[in-house]
Write a structure and sequence with these properties.
Elements lengths: L3 H6 L9 E4 L2 E4 L6 E6 L2 E2 L7 E2 L2 H10 L6
Antiparallel strand pairs: 1-2, 2-3, 3-4, 3-5
């Protein structure tokens, strides 16, 4: 599990937007790109070319769950 201290300093490598932890993924709060980075063995895979784009509806649901955490 990624601790809060690490989560606080990580950002999307493409947009520099904040990230929220959603299960085994880090999801960018950037509404334009909606990128999601997977976490394997507690290590975030922060490679832009391996990120997934989340569809708008799913991204909005994720953001609603974590709206109090988004800076």
């Amino acid at each position: 599990m990624i601790n809060q201290e690490l989560l606080d300093i990580l950002c999307c490598p493409k947009t520099k937007a904040d990230l929220v932890l959603d299960g085994d993924f880090l999801v960018s709060v950037d509404s334009e790109t909606r990128l999601r980075y997977r976490i394997e063995d507690d290590i975030p895979i922060m490679l832009i070319e391996e990120a997934e784009t989340v569809d708008v509806a799913e991204w909005e649901e994720i953001m609603k769950k974590y709206e109090n955490e988004v800076k």
